[in-house]
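Reply to dn_fold:

You asked what the input looked like. This is it:
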Amino acid sequence: LTVVKDVAAATEKAVTRTDDPIELLEFAVEAAGDSVERTPELLPVLKEAGVVDSGGKGFFFLLEGMTRWINGQPLDVPVAEVKPLDALKLDHT
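and this is what came back:
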């Protein structure tokens, strides 16, 4: 929710500078990326694990994908290798 709140606040500020919906969406993407990068500072468990908030990152990807589609840019779709859980080396089991 922090990322969504940060995006809303940034977009509210941006609307005073432009009324172009594409520009506002681009401001939202930038704000989401910045907010996601700050999430480990807000939640010690994320910092300890060396990760960012996954929900916030998902929201960022949603906004980024919409922006890319609107601008006619290709979507970067990474290839992921899926492994069964027993193939993972988990420390906290």
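DSSP finds four helices and no strands in the chain.
Hope that clears it up.
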